[in-house]
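[recover] target loaded
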């Protein structure tokens, strides 16, 4: 029951966030985005925790992403943006650890590795001319988020979890990856509201999927 009200609140906050992004209103962004991100953490906290190590790692990831969300609101400030990038990188490390600790190495590891490696290489080559001194941090970020998707791919082949659970995690990781492409495009290639309209709903859906997954794994 609580989850329904959280999702309704999330839709309202997301609508307000998109409006604020269009207006480029920092005040509007800061009055919606942190609260929206806090809902991810709340969802994880109120779920049943059948797999405590998975829950703790996902929760840590959500907390660092919450920090990253606040920092990235100041995308025009290079230092704060870099701190946000670092916070998200740490968050992805926790997600990756959650997936691999729970599933280990499976056939999905190698399938997802074969799929994501060339894609990430193409992404980097497209971004490279626009990165300047940010090349190092961006390479690190691409590597880490790629491993997060590989970890989700590993878990997707782990029969210890139900098919719906595995698909929820895999879809969440893939949506997160795609949403980050729009963040990179907005920051380094072309600043346009289309990036926000496309990326933000996917990002929020991904975070909710990962947050709900702590209650679905048993």
């Amino acid at each position: 029951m609580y989850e329904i009200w959280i999702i309704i609140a999330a839709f309202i906050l997301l609508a307000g966030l998109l409006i604020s992004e269009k207006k480029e209103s920092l005040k509007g962004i800061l009055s919606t985005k942190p609260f929206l991100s806090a809902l991810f953490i709340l969802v994880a906290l109120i779920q049943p925790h059948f797999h405590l190590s998975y829950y703790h790692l996902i929760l840590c990831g959500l907390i660092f992403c919450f920090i990253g969300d606040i920092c990235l609101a100041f995308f025009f400030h290079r230092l704060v943006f870099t701190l946000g990038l670092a916070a998200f990188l740490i968050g992805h490390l926790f997600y990756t650890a959650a997936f691999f600790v729970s599933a280990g190495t499976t056939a999905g590891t190698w399938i997802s590795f074969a799929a994501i490696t060339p894609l990430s290489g193409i992404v980097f080559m497209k971004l490279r001319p626009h990165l300047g001194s940010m090349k190092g941090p961006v390479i690190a970020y691409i590597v880490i988020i790629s491993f997060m998707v590989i970890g989700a791919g590993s878990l997707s082949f782990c029969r210890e979890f139900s098919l719906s659970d595995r698909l929820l995690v895999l879809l969440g990781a893939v949506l997160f990856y795609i949403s980050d492409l729009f963040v990179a495009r907005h920051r380094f290639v072309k600043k346009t509201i289309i990036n926000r309209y496309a990326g933000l709903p996917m990002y929020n859906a991904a975070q909710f999927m990962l947050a709900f997954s702590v209650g679905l794994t048993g």
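[recover] notes: The chain has a mean pLDDT of 90.
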